[in-house]
Amino acid sequence: MIKVQDVIATNYRVPDLDKMEKFLTDFGMVRARRDASKLYMRGAGTLPYMTSVEQGEPAFVSVTFRVETMAELEEAAKLPGSSAITDATGPGGGKQVSIKGPDDFRIDLVHGQQAAEPLQVREPLQVNFAQQKNRVFTLQRPANEPARVFRIGHCVFKVTNADAAVAWFRDTLGMLITDRIHVPDNSKVTLGTFLRCNKGKNPADHHSILCLQSEPGDIKVHHSSYEVQDPDAVHIGHYWLKQGGYKSEWGVGRHLLGSQVFDYWRDPWGHMFEHYADGDLLDDTAVPGDYPGTQENLAQWGPELSPTFFQ
Ligand SMILES: [Fe+2]
């Protein structure tokens, strides 16, 4: 059975690669490779790239997951609508299969990708808490710079049938349901469901995928999300992007489900990108939660929800 182990890349298409590289650089990524028609951006962690961008009409192209075995790729290649197994052309190489997900979203599975050398970045900040002092004679001076992203955390799909999409991610990619949110006065109607990778007793992010119930005509990727070093980096990144003239969508705040300190931004074509830090980790024993979809359950603190957040 296929059990994806992590989301490792998002793949976009935009008309102006220079403009997108500038945005992603200000967002905290670093160029891994670029040729005439394709750009690969990496973070400071061991992923050789985590966002690829091809030239063309603005669109989300696909999300990429890592699988542990070649047998899983072979199984994926037999699914209806799948590609054959090919060489993955991005940095790090490996083998790849593209499969057809809910609402025909393209999902790429990669096996055998070579890890990259991590980049040199500042150490996580030592924080002096009221009840616990961790820093004496050491000054707190994080640089004013783009928030260095380390890895991709998750991707959110707007789908025509959230329950069917969740069943697909569970049954086809071996994912586990973490939390469901429902219409506040009708617990039978799903608004969205968070799914995490099944890594057994190893900790997995609270979610690698969220499926949001939407309408035909509004089927798209809502946002993709990238982990930065610590909550200070989320705030520093906010002011860096603000100074760069980009569009802030919502943040800085702290989510309830997943607990991440979050901050959402739009790229020049309106795709939403999120910085986060300090998210929850769970193993395969966590019992699924079920919550009414209220604003209090979206964020524990932070600015009022942006009216355009779900667009
Ligand atoms: Fe998110």
Report on the structure:
This protein has 311 residues and is an alpha+beta fold. It has one domain (6-114, 148-301): 2,3-Dihydroxybiphenyl 1,2-Dioxygenase, domain 1 (Roll). It has helices at 17-27, 70-77, 162-173, 231-243, 295-298, and strands spanning 6-14, 30-34, 38-42, 51-55, 59-66, 86-87, 95-100, 106-111, 149-159, 176-183, 186-196, 204-205, 209-213, 220-228, 247-255, 261-266, 272-277, 281-282, 289-292, 299-301. The protein has a ten-stranded mixed beta sheet with strand order 19-10-11-13-9-14-17-16-15-20. Strands 2-3-4-1-5-8-7-6 form an eight-stranded mixed beta sheet, covered by helices on one side. A two-stranded antiparallel sheet has the order 12-18. Strand 16 (261-266) and strand 17 (272-277) form a beta hairpin. 40% of the residues are buried. The model has no long low-confidence stretch (mean pLDDT 97). Fe (ii) ion binds at residues 154, 156, 223, 225, 274.
Number of domains: 1
Strand order of the largest sheet: 19-10-11-13-9-14-17-16-15-20
Q: List all distinct small molecules, including ions and cofactors, that are bound in this structure.
A: fe (ii) ion
Could you give me the name of the CATH homologous superfamily?
2,3-Dihydroxybiphenyl 1,2-Dioxygenase, domain 1
In short:
The protein has about 300 residues and is α+β, with helices and mostly antiparallel strands. Helix content is about 15%, strand content about 40%.
